[in-house]
């Protein structure tokens, strides 16, 4: 399959470069290798038959890094914990969105994050991370990594001044700074991180400590359509594919994308830990990639109208929507440089307390009361008590995650219907 598959990795017609949304329809797949099937079959197999013993030896040597690949040689199929045709095609297509060398898929977003961090962190190292971030990532960094001798220092994302440099100075006193980890826009406040600033800081640290920290960014909120971190000095881009990429709230998966040399250690850890995505899930995500830009575009258009409605509503105190950034502010400059849309997930603060926020959620009729985001259906939740419940209360309050904060992920329903639902739900306050 591998030799002929290269014929289906077209990126240009003449001098015309093809867009990722076009390449999602066939890149990396040869129908003639699968009985002419237009779409890739689901390869539900644990293992693959070798043509001969030498082929098996060659495949394993390459898979386990015992030798360098010959020119034009690609890894052969061995075992679905190592590689699988569905995952190979999916990973090729994910890399296209970021203009990256290599994509890897995982069983969940947290599997992608944890495997990537473990590949680059060792006892005594320090991770410098932005806050707020997804609650599961926060718990991993704050509570689990210290059990393995890995320290952490937090810096705040925001709409104004950032605290990266002071955090790095503190981290250098604790040990080798091995990873700079950011989530931007932040979950759920939409606070921003200057990605170029993180990349530049890593280069400075390389000169000071003789090791360049790996810059990792969770790009779930805006990527891969509206934000491409690799363009700004980021090494590894992370995703919960469960969200916008899969987009139908029916699978759980994750991904990491980056340069081939950076992704090598992560792939090695994935093989040994067994945190890969399964073939059926990979096939479903391939299906979703074909409509990714359509879905994200429709949701973003609707989200802008809903954000404006909420901003003008008398029972809403604040709307953390990126389209409302003050022109000329630092946050607006960051947003304008590294993003091309405000996306469709944001939080807002009602005028009230937790009880009032719960009344709004319980009154919803179209919008679903559920965690997650990026699906075709609109979802709302209460970050303080739900997605970020394991973050200490004082930290949440300091970062702007309040008892009156609600997070909405706008889907693809009729916008007027969603506004009607929010109107009657806010009446419950």
Report on the structure:
The protein has 429 residues and is an alpha/beta fold. It has 3 domains: 2-79, no CATH class; 88-289, Aspartate Aminotransferase, domain 2, CATH 3.40.640.10; 292-426, Aspartate Aminotransferase, domain 1 (Alpha-Beta Complex), CATH 3.90.1150. It is 38% helix and 15% strand. It contains 15 helices and 14 strands. The chain has helices spanning 2-5, 20-23, 53-63, 85-98, 109-120, 135-144, 164-172, 195-209, 260-273, 279-289, 292-311, 330-338, 354-363, 393-399, 415-426; strands at residues 12-13, 16-17, 102-106, 126-131, 151-156, 177-183, 214-218, 236-240, 254-258, 316-320, 345-350, 368-369, 379-381, 405-409. Helix 6 links the parallel strand 4 (126-131) and strand 5. Helix 4 (85-98) packs parallel to helix 10 and helix 13 (354-363) crosses helix 15. It is globular and about 70 Å long.
Could you say what the CATH architecture of the largest domain is?
Answer: 3-Layer(aba) Sandwich
The proportion of strand residues reads: 5-15%
Give the overall shape. globular
**Domains counted in the coordinates: how many?**
3
- Give helix % range: 25-40%
Q: What is the chain-wise order of helices and strands?
A: HEEHHHEHEHEHEHEEEHHHEHEHEEHEH
Strand order of the largest sheet: 3-9-8-7-6-4-5
Tell me the span between the first and last alpha carbons: 60 Å
Q: What is the CATH top level name of the largest domain?
A: Alpha Beta
Specify the structural class.
alpha/beta
CATH superfamily of the largest domain: Type I PLP-dependent aspartate aminotransferase-like (Major domain)
Number of helices: 15
User: Could you name the ranges where pLDDT drops below 50 across 5 or more consecutive residues?
Assistant: 1-5
Write down the overall mean pLDDT: 94
Radius of gyration, rounded? 22 Å
Q: What is the CATH T-level topology of the largest domain?
A: Aspartate Aminotransferase, domain 2
